[in-house]
Amino acid sequence: MKNGGTNNLIIDGNNLLYRIFWTNNFKLDEANSPGQVFLFLRSLKSYVDRFQPKEIYCTWDKKLEWPSTNFRNEVITVEYKANRDDDKFKNVHEYSEKIQEIIALLGVHNMYPLRMEADDLMAWLSTHLPGKNVIITTDKDLLQTISADTRIYSPIKKKEVTLQNFEEYTGVSKEQYLNYRAITGDKSDNIPGIPRYGLARFKKLEWPSTNFRNEVITVEYKANRDDDKFKDVHEYAEKIQEIISLLGVHNMFPLRMEADDLMAWLSAHLPGQSVIVTTDKDLLQTISVDTKIYSPIKKKIVTLQNFEEYTGVSKDQYLNYRAVTGDKSDNIPGIPKYGLARFKKLDLTKLTEEQQVIYERNLKLMDLSIGYDYYPDEVPIYEEQLKKCKTHKSNHNKFIEEAKKLNMWSVVRDYSSWRESFNNNENIINIIKKAIKKCKTEN
Q1: Tens digit of pLDDT for each residue in 95-150?
Q2: What is the DSSP string of 239-293?
Q3: Domain ranges across the chain
Q4: Which fold has domain 8-200?
């Protein structure tokens, strides 16, 4: 195989066979069987030339355990894939064994499921093969496999689908794609959806977003937050995001994790020194040589130098301390009757079995370095947003127009001060540093 291209080319063999049949109006019969083999080989060569893979895998629906069914046939009450016209495509696989034999001579790896389907095998390959993958298919199910390491090439639309253009291609975000498919069904597989639901109606549905932390803890994560008391807290969030964007502030959003995880990732990946403005104790984990925390309530900067003075424990022990004592604000219970004083006397190697379970669970819940790396498609979303930040510019004139619309006349009167603070030559980090310096001199 060639060097310099993608690592792995994964071909949906059955999908290609059906497409060859379809494009030739089902006329590929015994009389012109070499045509079917030739067209398959010609398509294969075009994909290899395009992507120059190091390894090529061709998956087939021929099950190694035959006859057999899989759980999908048991789940659905109508016959799974029963609307496929067996008579029309009765000869589609007549020369598949010959094709498999020939492409194996070219170094292609033919692969087969045990009792599942080629889709499942391709999905497994996409997460277990080393390096980058390209899957050749028109099967919409395989769009689920798209990640930082896997993209889909549609040979009919001649288009590559990646995390970056996923929503443009499908109409929904990667996170919501499986929900969308579950709601709307799949006619090609004879899977009925909810009646009269298409893309437009799906987008109007409300979906709760969860991440692995909700699955780790037995009580409801963050459930003690009074939703009724704060029900209107986000009412103007979008307007605020819109306005601060005009000042040159980069709004950034996680995929399925939380803002804490995103800030932790930014602190570790942005060049230079960073200041995080927050009152969230979880973010104290991010403090390093290059990252400080500014607490706007206590008007205090926390660094490596004053970390133990501020928290009561060393930076190395902080995460252990949090895992042992828990976090009431996030509804994460700690080991009963353990506070700072008892933690300082604790030998973590001598925890009881029950205490060990709580400690390990809380470590997984609280460690921000786990969060952003937990899902393979999380960080690529952060990286994509950072790329867009490079082209994002402030628009002070429009900012003042918005201020007038919202009757923020103090902002309008003090316009020159706002412009000076958020000047493009003086980024937001420098402004925060100035505010911190001012607080220090006042104290």
Answers
A1: 889 999 999 999 999 999 987 889 999 999 999 999 999 999 999 999 999 998 99
A2: HHHHHHHHTT------SSS-HHHHHHHHHHHSSS-EEEE---GGGGGG-SSSEEE
A3: 8-200, 211-443
A4: Rossmann fold (3.40.50)
